Each structure stands twice: as C-alpha cells, then as structure tokens.
Amino acid sequence: MLPTFIIAGAGKSGTTTLWSQLNTHPQVCMARIKEPAFFSEIKGMNEGGGPGAPTASGSYSRGLAWYESLFTAENSHRAFGEASTLYMHAPDAAGLIRRHIPSVRLVFILRDPVARMYSQYWQERKAGMRLPDFDAMLDAGHPRMRRYAYNSHYREHLERFLAIFPRSQILILFSERLRTLPGTTFDEACTFIGVEPGLRTRELGRSHNTAALPRWPTLQRLLKSPACNVLRVTLHDGIKPPLRAAVHLLRQTNIKDFDYPPLAPAQKDRLIPIFQDDISFVEQLANCSLSHWRKVA
Fold first, then answer.
1. Closest CA to 158 of 146, 176, 143, 171
2. HSE-up of 30 (CA within 13 Å, CB side)?
3. What's residue 127's pLDDT?
C-alpha cells in the first residue's frame, strides 16, 4: 500500500499537529511511524552529509516493501498518508515521489519564514544540540543558520514540486490558520485528500512540539540519534511497542518546559528582506495576502 497523500512540510509549521488530527479520522490510515522520510537518498547533516545536506537522512535504501509495510489498510480507510518534512527541502524528494506515486496529493503547511527558522533553532536546542546564541550564529554565518534559512526559502522548494506535479495536486495551508481556525483548516485538508470533513476530535486545537529544553542534552542527543531511530523501527514487532514507550518516556522525562524568548524586532527586521521573494511567490500561489509576514512586530 502506497500513500494517497503526503504532508511534505514545512518543518516547524504544524505538520505534526495536522498528522495527529488526521490520524484520528476513521477514514484515514496514517503511516505507523511519523517522518519515515522514505523519498530521499541523500545523507543528512547529522550523519556526516556534506555542505547543504538536510538535517536528517532519507530512508529510500530500505526499499519499497519496507515503506509499504508502514500502512495497514482497513475497509473504512479511504485515504493513506504520511508526514515527512524532509521532502520539502531534499532536492531528490519530488522526483522520487513522482516516480512511485504520480497521482499523490501533496500538503504543504507554511509559516512566517523568519518565525519558522527561529523555531527550528530552538527545536535543535530542544534536541540537545549545543549551539551558540541565535544572534551569534547569525553574525557568524553559522552553517546551521544557513540551513534554517534554506529551509524557509519556500519558492525554491515549491517550484521543484510544481515543475512535475499539477497545481491541483498541491494544497497550501498556513500554520496560523491551523492554530486559530483548526476546524476550518482540518476540513480543508480532509476535502483535499478525499475523506469526509466535519469530524471534531480532541486533537483539534491541540499543539505539538511545544517549546522545551532538555535537562541532560547528551541523553537527548542519544535518544534523537539516527542509530536510536533505526533500532526503534527495525527490532522484532513484539519488542517495538515497549521500546517505543521506553524511548518516549525517557525523552519526556528529560524535557523541562521552557518558553524561549520571542524573536526581537531587530532580529526579524534583519531577516525579513532575504525572504521577500518567497513571500511574494506564496502570495501569488495561494492567492492571499501575507503582509503580516513582512511586519516586524
């Protein structure tokens, strides 16, 4: 079984929230793991990938049979999906998706590009990475800062998909609406993927991947490492549930609530100009105004 739709990005824009909402819909089968990242052969930065590599690695080498095993069909299911933010910015993802499932429907959730890159910085701090202050990374042209900005350059990434997929197979959603109008946004996604809208569950309005920091960064890096993820998905089926539960418990225990500081107006004012072309492109593509993305405060 191959997916009929994919939530393909952008990272830190609400993909986990939409994945969780759709996972509660009785007509939808979501892959049994989030972020399978199947449609890419590129080695990620965290595993020694070269300059410009995505943070994570693709798992295309596992083979189509492994990917298909992530979906369990039931008679009630009318749509099958997964969510992998890697696809939006991995250069080979669009082509591999087109090769295997040309009729797939693609959902992209977009967020203010400056806020998105700032959130990605704090997400990596949450994952246990020891990083300099945001301003210091910006001043130094830190490689990870360049990666955050690259991931927010929506025009370049969306044009890769638009070059080989019809516009009718692409849905653009916005994280702000997912947060403020969750029911309306959820119904829009349901209609697009071909399941009944109108379902209301406890997941609507819930936030995921909220701000936090690890108590012990080294432990968090280990729990988030590629080796740990490989172990989690490849062990015998009878071992997987308790292993996943143990890893989840350790991750949650090692996390403490933390409200990271808001992006300073001077920081946003400095970054907005590099995304002007991306904002204009998305406005035209989605036929909407995104003037609030250009505002400093």
1. 171
2. 20
3. 77
Say if CB 108 and CB 172 are below 8 A apart.
yes
Q: What is the 3-state secondary structure (H, E, C) of 235-286?
A: CCCCCHHHHHHHHHHHHHHCEEECCCCCCCHHHHHHHHHHHHHHHHHHHHHH
Mean pLDDT, residues 58-81: 95
Higher-confidence position of 49 and 238: 49
* C-alpha to C-alpha distances, 9 to 58, 83, 85, 167, nearest whole angstrom: 14, 8, 4, 16
155-172 tens-digit pLDDT: 999 999 999 999 999 999
Q: Where are the domains of the chain?
A: 5-211+259-294
List pLDDT tens digits, range 25-69.
Answer: 999 999 998 899 999 998 776 666 655 566 678 999 999 999 999
Per-residue CA distances from 160 to 19, 35, 89, 186, 194 (Å): 23, 20, 9, 26, 24
Give the β-pairing of 5-9 and 105-110. Answer: parallel
pLDDT exceeds 90 at position 79: yes
Burial code (b: 16+ CB inside 10 Å, e: under 16) for 175-189 equals: bbebeeebeebbbbb
pTM, two decimal places: 0.83
What are the angstrom distances between the C-alpha of 173 and each of 15, 37, 161, 189? 10, 21, 16, 8
3.10.25.10, 3.30.870.10, 3.40.50.300, 3.30.460.80: CATH of 5-211+259-294: 3.40.50.300
Give the Cβ contact number of residue 168 at 10 Å.
8
